[in-house]
Write a structure and sequence with these properties.
The complex is a heterodimer of chains A (about 150) and B (about 170). Chain A is an all-alpha fold and about 150 residues long. Helix content of chain A is about 75%, strand content about 0%. Chain A is rod-shaped and about 160 Å long. Chain B is mostly helical and about 170 residues long. Chain B folds into two domains: about 80 residues, RNA polymerase sigma factor, region 2, helix turn helix motif (Rna Polymerase Sigma Factor, Chain: A, Orthogonal Bundle); about 70 residues, Winged helix-like DNA-binding domain superfamily/Winged helix DNA-binding domain (Arc Repressor Mutant, subunit A), CATH 1.10.10.10. Chain B contains nine helices and no strands. In chain B, helix 2 packs across helix 3, helix 3 packs across helix 4 and helix 8 packs across helix 9. Chain B is globular. Classes of the chains: A mainly alpha (about 150), B mainly alpha (about 170).
Chain lengths: ~150, ~170
């Protein structure tokens, strides 16, 4: 490409009047190794542009986190249910079984027997206390009291 | 739209999104994060994508707005100090190499441009979009683009020539 043509394109370029095709021509021209001395600043400019064009993002894009959050949602519901159930299991009293009922009955009978035994023995004690009155009478006969 | 259709539709311009984000945020990692975020957003709106004339322009606009949000958040939080430190560090590295590396000078000059001009250079000279497409992406009139582009290119040229002459003498 003749130098004059490049210089004209550059003039247009700085006025913002070049088309994308023109700019591609300039880009190719300045990509070559030898460029006249008075155009070398422009070479730095175009070299910078093509260097930047070549830069790429290296990370892998993941576009499925929506599903992830959904799964997490179900997980949290399940966990909440589990906690509720276990609290309920501890707090709500259960219906007693047959065996437990019988046991309780027997315990009642045993207790009643024990109470009966105690009250019988207490009654014996009562009879003995009745004799104490005779002591009182005898004492009054022997000692004259002041009153 | 299934995953294959989605991938075929949006993956071709992944690097353009990344490069635009990097132009805004400078750091490679931030640009990768933004790219990931943009694809998440696109995936969530995948049913609506077919209604857009140009999904690419839509995605690029989204990237631009997202980056502006990120920058705003950074400025309003105490991350600012960290960010400035990071920038300064970068600056020094650039300054060290700039004497020899004229390509790096161009990088610095573009970063010094006003936001809008910087973006137009990115979209035109690096991504080679037409004026209509740039207008759509940046949400500005196509006629205003030519002026801003010319101004940006001339600024780069002038500063480049100045530095070059300074370097020689």
């Amino acid at each position: 490409m003749e130098l004059v043509k490049i210089e004209n394109l550059l003039e247009k370029y700085f006025e913002g009047n070049t088309s994308l095709e023109d700019e591609k021509v300039l880009q190719t021209y300045f990509a070559q190794a030898y460029v006249p001395a008075h155009l070398q600043e422009y070479q730095a400019m175009f070299a910078y542009f093509s260097k930047n064009k070549a830069e790429v993002s290296t990370q892998q894009i993941q576009v499925k986190p929506v599903k992830k959050t959904w799964q997490l949602g179900w997980m949290s519901i399940a966990a909440a249910m589990l906690i509720l159930f276990s609290i309920a299991y501890v707090l709500i009293p259960k219906e007693p079984t047959e065996a437990e009922k019988r046991e309780a009955q027997m315990a009642l009978v045993e207790t009643q027997k024990a109470f009966q035994l105690i009250s019988q023995n207490l009654n014996k004690g009562n009879n003995a206390i009745a004799y104490l009155k005779d002591y009182e009478v005898t004492k009054n006969k022997i000692f004259k009291t002041n009153n | 739209m299934n995953q294959n259709e989605f991938t075929a539709l949006v993956m071709p311009f992944k690097d353009k999104i990344y490069r635009l984000a990097k132009r805004f945020l400078i750091s490679r990692d931030s640009a990768e994060d933004v790219t990931q975020d943009i694809y998440l957003k696109l995936w969530r709106n995948k049913e609506k994508l077919k209604t857009y004339n140009s999904v690419e322009a839509f995605a690029m606009t989204m990237t631009k707005n997202h980056c502006l949000d990120v920058l705003k958040a950074k400025n309003s939080s105490n991350l600012k100090i960290i960010h400035n430190n990071y920038k300064d560090l970068n600056h020094n590295v650039e300054r060290e190499t700039e004497i020899n590396d004229s390509v790096n000078i161009v990088h610095q000059l573009i970063n010094e441009l006003p936001e809008k001009q910087k973006l137009i250079i990115q979209l035109r000279d690096i991504e080679q979009y037409s004026f209509e497409e740039i207008g759509k992406i940046l949400e500005i009139q196509p006629t205003a683009i030519r002026v801003a582009l010319s101004r940006a290119r001339k600024t780069i040229r002038e500063k480049l020539l100045k530095k070059h002459r300074y370097g020689i003498s």
